[in-house]
Specification:
It contains two helices and two strands. It has one domain. The chain is of the alpha+beta class and 72 residues long. It is elongated, with a radius of gyration of 21 Å. The two termini are 15 Å apart. Helix 1 packs antiparallel against helix 2.
Length: 72
């Protein structure tokens, strides 16, 4: 449970630091035996800062919950 909490904290901080991620995919417009035309299409993933805050808070809660269960 502690490892999951640490991963959630890391992912939450990344979501807060990087507002969006853009990547490109290559798609074919024309594909015949002698002619191929391809183009690159951009895709953007927008990361909501509220999701980053919730993930980081849940990670902190899991880390503290993991410490308390080992103390008993």
């Amino acid at each position: 449970m502690r490892i999951t909490g640490i991963l959630l904290i890391i992912l939450g901080v990344i979501a807060l630091a990087v507002p969006s991620i853009t990547f490109m995919t290559t798609e074919r417009a024309v594909d015949t035996s002698f002619l191929q035309i391809s183009y690159q299409k951009p895709h953007t993933l927008v990361l909501n800062p509220i999701v980053g805050l919730v993930a980081a808070a849940a990670g902190v809660a899991l880390v503290f919950a993991g410490r308390r269960s080992h103390a008993l």
